């Protein structure tokens, strides 16, 4: 694998760009075995995950990444740990979030999201 | 012989309780949670193996975590013997005002009920 940090940075940039501009496109990053925990709610599989992501209570989002840490997960994947802020529906006040992705490689040398855990961080 | 299997949630809850209680009261004792291949990324710094990891953790200062208020999310990882635990909450470091943090663990089972931390990533949440 090329430098895990480069791989993770490219993936995260791609993920949040899609999330913020065309959320439906995220479907291509999940598979039947994918798991999402979103603010404590659990979803399994592309269909259920996308249903959640497409019915979130905000229309527009803009993610800004503050920190990104990567480790090989030991089973061929990458653990990617992100902290950052989101501007929601153009609100001036950004909310803090943290998110963990466990990425697994496809045969086409791209990555899909095996595990996805998202939490807002309240003060 | 009765063998009681804990669910992933039960394992995670027990681990989180044990980890942060030990970190706050007796961090030197954390070494037994790690193996030579364990990796901790602490605020972007990477440490490998029990000795390096515990040296790092014990060098930061005295921690006090608000354990009851921690959020804990658990998911099975790729194989059935590994789970991912995602924790967020508040901590105090020495006498400083409380800080938000987020932390990721991947626990790997070596036998029934016996886990070690294979991966750990920690970040303070500022701003």
Q: What are its keywords?
A:
heterodimer; A: 123 residues; alpha+beta; 6-stranded mixed β-sheet; 2 helices; globular; B: 127 residues; 7-stranded mixed β-sheet
How is this structure best described in words?
- The complex is a heterodimer of chains A (123) and B (127).
- Chain A contains two helices and six strands, in the order αββαββββ.
- Chain A is α+β, with helices and mostly antiparallel strands and 123 residues long.
- Chain A has a six-stranded mixed β-sheet, with helices on one face.
- Chain A starts with a helix and ends with a strand.
- Chain B has two helices and seven strands.
- Chain B has helices at 8-25, 50-60, and strands spanning 34-42, 45-48, 63-65, 71-76, 82-93, 99-111, 114-125.
- Chain B is 23% helix and 46% strand.
- Chain B is α+β, with helices and mostly antiparallel strands and 127 residues long.
- In chain B, strands 1, 2, 3, 4, 5, 6 and 7 form a seven-stranded mixed β-sheet that branches.
- In chain B, a hairpin with a 2-residue loop joins strand 6 and strand 7.
- The chains are: A alpha+beta (123), B alpha+beta (127).
In short:
The complex is a heterodimer of chains A (123) and B (127). Chain A has 123 residues and is of the alpha+beta class.
- How far do the termini of chain B sit from each other? 53 Å
Low-confidence spans of chain B: none
* Helix-strand string of chain A: HEEHEEEE
**Total number of helices of chain A:** 2
Strand pairing plus helix content of chain A: what structural class?
alpha+beta
Write the layout of secondary structure elements.
The complex is a heterodimer of chains A (123) and B (127).
Chain A: H1 4-21, E1 35-38, E2 41-44, H2 46-54, E3 61-72, E4 78-88, E5 95-105, E6 111-121
Parallel strand pairs in A: 1-6
Antiparallel strand pairs in A: 1-2, 3-4, 4-5, 5-6
Chain B: H1 8-25, E1 34-42, E2 45-48, H2 50-60, E3 63-65, E4 71-76, E5 82-93, E6 99-111, E7 114-125
Parallel strand pairs in B: 1-7
Antiparallel strand pairs in B: 1-2, 3-5, 4-5, 5-6, 6-7
